[in-house]
Design brief:
It is a single chain. By secondary structure, the chain is α/β, with parallel strands linked by helices. Helix 4 (89-103) crosses helix 5. It has one domain: Rossmann fold (3-Layer(aba) Sandwich), CATH 3.40.50. The protein has a six-stranded parallel beta sheet, sandwiched between helices. The longest helix has 15 residues, at 89-103. The protein is built from eleven helices and six strands.
């Protein structure tokens, strides 16, 4: 029996940031409503490609649970690994554009965690692919990261995260955030937080996932927003995160 992931301790905020920054579709039940059966039949016949992007200092393995859940629903999944430290968000977005051109088939969907979500936001706003349908942003620093601002004052920050995208994620980079419009597709946001106004990290204001405050993840225009009681990196390991991601890509809502 798999061991349940343990929550990280509430110390070393830099550690939090460091970690941050095909099966067939399930058939409809015989007694399901006609509309639901029709939706499932359409899902099994429409070609749907989902691109996944991890966060900074992570790898494609971080998105494996979500990848497995998507494949079980009939999605074709491209789980991308990329050198998160060595390029700017713009450079990552241009690289993603090439991956989508080469590997995207049918309807296009996107799921990004942390930095990966910001790269996808930039790509979609710039390329505006006609086949793009929906985006799920998991723990995204949509308004920048105050923790990155604090840690960037030390040389260790640049040493660990590099001098490219990690520098752009600071909330003080107003020029970067003002030039980054909301995605031109339906998008939903999953944030981490305890729902108690305090969160995991006492160094961050309000509710938070240990790395980002809930407010830093918000973005005007979102079709849905959900807070789950998980920390910034562990949120990817939770079944509930995968379930909500699949549901939003299929319906445009996280549901209950």
């Amino acid at each position: 029996m798999a061991r349940k992931p343990r929550e990280l301790p509430l110390f070393l905020p830099a550690l939090f940031l460091a970690a941050a920054l095909g099966a067939p579709a399930v058939p409809a039940h015989a007694g399901a409503p006609a509309a639901e059966r029709a939706e499932v039949r359409q899902a099994t016949t429409t070609l749907r490609t989902v691109f996944l992007m991890h966060g900074i200092l992570r790898s494609s393995r971080a998105m494996k649970r979500i990848e497995t859940a998507l494949r079980a629903r009939g999605f074709s999944v491209v789980n991308l690994g990329y050198p998160s430290r060595s390029r700017t968000v713009e450079e990552h977005a241009d690289w993603l554009a090439g991956q989508v051109r080469e590997r995207g088939r049918g309807e296009l969907y996107f799921v990004g965690h942390s930095l990966g979500a910001i790269v996808m936001r930039r790509y979609l706003g710039k390329a505006r692919p006609a086949a793009a349908r929906r985006l799920v942003m998991i723990a995204p620093p949509n308004r920048g990261s105050a923790m990155a601002d604090t840690l960037s004052k030390t040389g260790l920050y640049r040493l660990i995260f590099g001098g490219k995208a990690a520098q752009e994620l600071r909330s003080s980079r107003k020029d970067f955030w003002e030039g980054l419009p909301p995605p031109p597709v339906e998008f939903g946001i999953i944030a981490g937080g305890l729902g108690n106004g305090k969160g995991f990290n006492p160094l961050l204001p309000g509710d938070d996932d240990g790395t980002l405050s809930v407010e830093e993840t918000r973005l005007e225009g979102a079709s849905d927003f959900r807070i789950l009681p998980y920390q910034h990196t562990l949120i990817l390991l939770r079944r509930r995160t995968a379930e909500l991601t699949v549901r939003f890509l299929e319906t445009g809502k996280f549901g209950t």
